[in-house]
Amino acid sequence: MRSAKPYTNVTFTKRVDHDGGRKRPHRAPTEPAYCPGCGAVYVKRHWSHLVAARVQARNAGRPIDVRVCPSCHRARSGAPHGFLHVDGEFFLAHRTEIEQLLHNEVDRARAEHPLDQALAWEVLVGDGLLVTTTTEHLAQRLGRALRNAYDGELHFGFSHENKLAHIWWRR
Q1: Rounded to whole angstroms, how far apart are CA atoms 123 and 71?
Q2: Is the pLDDT reported for residue 171 higher than 50?
Q3: Which terminus of the chain has a smaller tally of CB atoms within 10 A, N or C?
């Protein structure tokens, strides 16, 4: 009788630990808190730029801690998580309109999600623009806003190991 060896055709891969270090969740920071970098307020376990959040922080009955928010911490560390590449002849012809659209979209995104920030606006050699963002979601949102407003080609590139998004728009 022939003995069957278990797992002869199975290849085991090494598990990649994307979040090395502490395995237990961090405790929520004390409330209220204020970020001196962007002016966000931490109330009810969320960072916010809304006036109502500032009023809640003042009326909390406790002193307001000064703490750097995660977005400003990421900006200071120089570790962006999103890139939007814009180029093409259409960009050269309508540069001011496109940049205004992107600035407006960043402002709207920041009102909804205060941790979404545009870190840098770099004019590339030739005919392009590179927008660096703190989150991959903001880069996607900016690319979709360009596609919805001006059509064009939109391409997504993701690196799931370090949560990085590259978005390319061209028309």
Answers
A1: 23
A2: yes
A3: N
Q: Which of 68, 88, 122 is the last residue of a domain?
A: 68
Look-up: residue for tokens 């814009």?
A: 86
β-bridge pairing 33-34 and 65-66: parallel
Examine the domain organization and report whether 145 and 118 are in the same domain: yes
In which element (H, E) is residue 66 found? Answer: strand 65-66
Q: What is the number of domains present in the chain? A: 2
Q: Does the pLDDT at position 21 exceed 90?
A: no
Q: Which residues contact 93 (CB under 8 A, 6 or more apart)?
A: none
Residue where the block lists tokens 């970098």: 37
Q: Which residues of 107-131 are buried (b: 16+ CB within 10 A; e: fewer)?
A: eebbeebbbbbbbeeeeeeeebbeb
Q: What is the mean pLDDT of the chain?
A: 84
